[in-house]
Write a structure and sequence with these properties.
- Chain A is an alpha/beta fold.
- Chain A has one domain (3-286): TIM Barrel.
- Chain A contains ten helices and ten strands.
- In chain A, the strands form two sheets. Chain A has an eight-stranded parallel barrel, surrounded by four helices. In chain A, strands 8-9 form a two-stranded antiparallel ribbon.
- The longest helix of chain A has 18 residues, at 119-136.
- Chain A is globular and about 50 Å long.
- In chain A, 49% of the residues are buried.
- Chain B is mainly α.
- Chain B has a single domain, classed as Outer Surface Protein A, domain 3 (Alpha-Beta Complex), CATH 3.90.930.
- In chain B, the strands form two sheets. A three-stranded antiparallel beta sheet of chain B has the order 2-3-4.
- In chain B, strand 3 and strand 4 form a beta hairpin.
- In chain B, helix 4 (73-79) packs across helix 5 (81-94), helix 8 packs across helix 10 (180-188) and helix 11 runs antiparallel to helix 12.
- The longest helix of chain B has 23 residues, at 49-71.
- Classes of the chains: A alpha/beta, B mainly alpha.
- Chains A and B meet through helix 2 and helix 4 of A and helix 1, helix 3 and helix 8 of B.
Chain lengths: 288, 273
């Protein structure tokens, strides 16, 4: 994988409905936006009009939630052709989805369900990633998910599984720092060891988000500010992986845009504190 | 021997969507060994295997419930939150989501309501849900440039008789048994809704400037919209107007409707224009 295929876009946020008008009516408000692919796989209307307006002014990334790359079901060819058409129309900087399964037997649970970390699963997922990349004509990024259960028959650590899939399929990695923190708490592993176990050259994007503390476990709710321990882990990640594109997700109890932009600015400040910041224009322009 | 991926995923899926939770769902799993879920999912002193899977089961239901509440605000307003919760429990069993987009999760709710006990108290509820679903479909339907008055006037008079007007691809004509338009408008406007009258009617649902609108239509307008969607020429439309219009000025009545359709952006530029 050539990391230059995934230029550092700077600091962005997820494009969400409450902010559409503000983003379209304001001058430069963000380095880039990430959009949920499935929300725009429609025939027409407001979503596509908004995306057109945003894309005319900002780089975007398509981030899917229903690729179901780990499912035992066959790949959904219709879904993939719609994704490919969306990508042709809006030319995203890249396309990403999650290392998980979302359904089986033709059903969709609309959740990011965990896989057993086995060699069998590595082979299964990697071969499907290769098919997806072939269909889309580009490398994709796969994101680590938050999880609440692990399997008795897993033989690999999560980061070993993620790395093995990425190496075998030659795809990139979207490292969700909050998800690492949440899963580390839920499964009692060392989050820093996770970072150290992932190859630097594969990681092309970070995600940041907030979680909810449910006492016996942490839930990845995307409805809180980024917590201090996650910020600390982010700084460690920036030192290891460099100043790659960073994206703040906030999906429930969505604050006003200024608050959300403030979190992206905080990410910029934290990255700068690591001595690795790039300005927005440089980040977009140099493609490195 | 490690279980294969398909059998593990199928089991977890069945347990996640089990309506009374993972513990109840496990009772239906006769093939599972005596050790139960713990042979597949790791538990620990913080959370058992069942509790861990229950986290997913809860998220499955509440995520979809929240989405459907957003999709069906008037239906929720009429039946109340508790009834809606129970409705969705049954609905997801009958129609588990299969589409990659959650936008489609509620597409069969009106059909489900057609034979649901909630109709005893609210006999119009399926019609209302059908209208709300139509609004979602119209909102996301294909785009097409609307026909303007200027563009219509630019068409040579000689071409008018054979001209075939076209309705916007997003437009829907929805048959209803109850006047649910008033209920939907009341809920949308934040006011109290009144029980609707029973009267077979057609609701026109359309999109203008990315916003959705709806109103009941009947009589001449309904007749003409149906004729237009059936490919009738302007000459044929005029003949229908002359035949069925009660107005003393059928041409004026037609032009009045035409002006309204143009203002509402429900016509698009005909291919022959």
């Amino acid at each position: 994988m050539n990391r230059a295929d995934f230029p550092s876009l700077g600091f962005g946020v997820g494009l969400r409905r409450p902010h559409y008008t503000h983003i379209l009516e304001s001058k430069s408000v963000m380095d880039w936006f990430e959009v949920i692919s499935e929300n725009f796989m429609v025939d027409g209307g407001r979503p596509l009009e908004v995306l057109e307006g945003v894309r005319n002014r900002y780089p975007i990334v398509l981030h899917g939630v229903s690729l179901s790359i780990g499912s035992a079901d066959p790949l959904d060819r219709e879904y993939l052709s719609k994704l490919a058409a969306l990508a042709r129309r809006f030319e995203p900087a890249w396309i990403s989805d999650h290392l998980c399964w979302t359904g089986v037997g033709g059903r969709n649970a609309h959740d990011l369900l965990p896989l057993p970390y086995t060699d069998e699963a590595v082979r299964h997922v990697a071969s499907r990633v290769c098919q997806v990349q072939e269909m889309l004509g580009r490398r994709v990024l796969l994101e680590n998910v938050s999880s609440y259960l692990t399997f008795q028959h897993s033989t690999l650590a999560e980061w070993e599984f993620l790395t093995a899939v990425a190496e075998e399929s030659d795809c990139g990695i979207l490292l969700d720092i909050n998800n690492i923190f949440v899963s580390a708490f839920n499964h009692n592993f060392d989050a820093e060891r996770y970072l150290e176990g992932v190859p630097v050259e594969r990681v092309a994007q970070f995600h940041l988000a907030g979680y909810s503390d449910r006492g016996t476990y942490l839930l990845d709710t995307h409805d809180h500010p980024v917590s201090e321990p996650v910020w600390a882990l982010y700084e460690k990640a920036v030192r290891r992986f460099g100043p790659i594109a960073t994206l703040v997700e906030w999906d429930d109890h969505i604050p006003d845009f200024a608050t959300l932009a403030g979190v992206a600015d905080e990410a910029r400040r934290r990255a700068a504190s690591c001595g690795l910041i790039e300005s927005r224009r440089e980040a977009i322009g140099d493609g490195a | 021997m490690a279980p294969d991926l398909k059998s593990v995923q199928s089991l977890l899926y069945r347990l996640i969507v089990a309506p009374s939770g993972v513990t109840e769902g496990l009772r239906e799993e006769s093939d599972l060994s005596a050790d139960g879920l713990g042979t597949i999912v790791r538990g620990d002193n913080r959370l058992s295997a069942i509790e861990r899977l229950d986290i997913y089961a809860e998220m499955y239901f509440y995520r979809l419930l929240d989405c459907l509440k957003e999709d069906y605000p008037a239906t929720v307003a009429v039946v109340g939150a508790t009834n809606f919760h129970n409705l969705i429990t049954g609905y997801l069993l009958a129609y588990p989501p299969s589409h990659p987009s959650v936008l489609f999760a509620g597409r069969y709710l009106a059909n489900f309501l057609d034979s649901h006990p909630l109709r005893e108290q609210w006999p119009f509820i399926a019609d209302l849900a059908r209208l709300e679903r139509a609004l979602i479909e119209v909102f996301h339907a294909a785009d097409a440039p609307a026909l303007s008055s200027e563009e219509l006037r630019a068409i040579a008079p000689a071409d008018w008789p054979m001209l075939e007007l076209k309705t916007h691809p997003a437009l829907q004509l929805l048959p209803t048994q109850w006047n649910v338009v008033n209920v939907a408008h009341a809920v949308e406007g934040g006011s109290d809704w009144e029980p609707p009258d029973r009267s077979s009617s057609q609701v026109l649902v359309w999109r203008k400037d990315c916003r959705c609108y709806y109103r009941e239509i009947g009589g001449l307008e309904l007749d003409l919209i149906r004729a237009i969607t059936g490919g009738a020429s302007v000459a044929a439309l005029c003949e229908r107007v002359a035949a069925v219009s009660l107005s003393e000025d059928p041409t004026g009545a037609f032009l009045e409707l035409l002006e309204r359709w143009l203002a509402d952006s429900i016509l698009i530029i005909p291919a022959s224009a």
